[in-house]
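Cont'd.
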Amino acid sequence: MKKMYIIIVIVFVAIVSHSTHVLFAAVMNSTNYSIQSDSVNFGGGQSSSTSYTQESTFGEIATGPSGSTSYNLTAGYQQMQGVYIAMTAVSDVNLTPSIPSIGGGVGDGASTVTVTTDSTAGYELSIKASSSPALVSGSNSFANYTQVGANPDFSFVVPTADSEFAFSPEGVDVVQSFKDDGSSCNTGVLDTVNACWSPLTTTNTLISKKVTGNFPSGTATVLKFRAESGSAHVQPAGAYVATTTVTAIAL
Amino acid sequence: MSTTRKKIGAIIILSIWFLTSSFTTLYALEDQFEVRLTVTPPSDLIAPSIPTGLSAIAVSSSQINLAWTASTDNVAVTGYRIYRDTVFVTTVTATNFSDIGLSANTLYSYRVSAVDAATNESAQSASTSATTFTAPVSQQNNSGGNGGGSQINAPVIYDVVVVPTQNTATITWKTTQPTAGNLSWGITSSFETGIDVQVIFQTSHSVTITQLVAGTDYNFTITGQNGYGRNTNYTNRFKTSVITQEFPNPTNFVAKSTAENIDLTWNNPRNQDFEEVRIVRGDGFFPNDPSDGQVVYEGNGDSFTDSDTEIGKTYFYTIFARYQGGDYSSGSVSKARIRLPGDPVTPTDDGIYESLPESPSVDPIIEALTFLDFDFIQNGRKISAFNDGDKVAIDGNLNLTVSLDYKKVPEILKSMVVTLSYPDDPTRTFSFLLRVNKEKTLYTATIGALGQSGTYGVNIAIVDYQNRGMKKIVGGLVANVFQAYGEDRKFVAMIREILFNVLLLVILLMIIYKALKVVFQKKKDVARNNIHEGIY
């Protein structure tokens, strides 16, 4: 058998630092490192540590994914692609001020996420909640925001006898449904501040999209959240939490 | 601090479709975070109950006293709002109120409401009224007011209680009728020190007098006047508490080296509870505690020779007096060193300071201390300093306590040593330690009577072990073995001294007289003999 040569490409180890998480076409990654490709053309076998397990290849033919709960591995001889996409970590959001149980009130908060990619096709950014309704405290909750129509509401309005929770994205890449003309959403080219509110559901809602690469500057999207308890509504006291996920995809 | 478990995962999803020998790869990133909101519990929306039983009683021509039954609330009643003739007057926390400054012979109506912390206010109580007295025609004649002056008894002061401390006294008393008046006090019967004026007519009175001198007798007088202008008074006296003085140390503790030994001498305290002394020896510095170091002597003698010594080594001794109950004095200190051959005959021995580091790096709080920060106490009373605060006049016949407030120095490892130099020989010194008292309020030490008149030099050394430095404070004690204060005692001493001198003079004159008489008698006899011999 023709002698195989070792080709090992380790692109970045411990490439993630602070709040920016960069993902190349990595064969394995964790919070501390990622390995872009791995090829062992002689010997081989299973190697492992407390945080990963990998199966190296013997030859250039065998390919396919492998993985664990914390990473996915794409292994195969010279199989890697170099698309770059990175997303800043999103800070937790505390809606302020607190809302009294009786008498009603409004709590607002925001956080920012920046997506950077060198993909010439751009990226998409989506948001979803882990539960429905999204903002919950035990068995108590704020209802997901009720839009008047199919499009996000330009103004956040909650009936006095209800309590509801919504989000609104802002940024140059927000999709058309969150753009406005100053009075309505999904029309016009404006990105009016604190406008175009939508419920946070358990299915991904596309909020930003770019059809070209934006490397290295990236593009920021501001995620605004608002909860309101109406003046005639009694909202049980408690610490309410909406576990939220944003997903960035390189196109 | 976020308690949220944030999972930041990066996922590569590789989808491979072996369609026409090609594949597509999807790259995605996910981040999870939390949106949080606090909904606060409902605030108190329930008002307290309405106050009941409101009464209004006029007690003078200018005051009406109100009282009512307490309200209840789901949380707590925080106060009562007083309305006079439908106008809000004030908010009080008690269930009574004295409305003063009113016009004489005027009808006033009152209502009261209760409030809670959430400012919920109850409805107002039922109205009640009272009419102030007519103004007294004359307050000097003990009559007048509402036309029945002569028939109104004068108030009586009773249940007078005085609770003195070292520097304060709380005097409470009651009166059979609501009265206003004065409390005056002073050391003499003129009550010259202070006065407290009470303008509210009431039956229970309490005044706390401050800035008194410990261990001092005070006279006080209470005068009260009811709403009809009739007066009452009460006079008595009290004494403020004396300052506790710790058990005295042995005095004149001296360690003196001989060729091979160290001789220790001291004077035991003259205190009936004194049992014995304990001498503890240390190598580096003076033991601070009876159990700190090597015990070299226990007993009630007044001297000891330490023979377990090495030549050329300095030994530090602390002597503690033990009293009934096992309490020890703070300790007196001395040190000595057996000279090496060739050492000067008179080695330099400057007392306790020789081995102490002197450094400007002592704690700044210690560095700021002055002689005035220390208290000098005799007979349970603080003695004021004079001469710009660096000298204190004391009675040489009494124990002396030196104290420093515990809070005046930082809680770091330290030693405080007071050294007295004698008036007739400043090179002769006597040192003692200040130790923390049981209550942890003072660093204090007591020594026995100095017994010698004159000005003693005072050197206070505070050793800061943490900063390896020492603070020295200098002052003086002006001791008089006859008196330290009190003109009467000075007069008695002076008379005693004069009488003593007169007596000595009389005795001397009598001796001289006798001597002269004998001399003259002898001369006379000689002359007489000469004459007699001449005749014969």
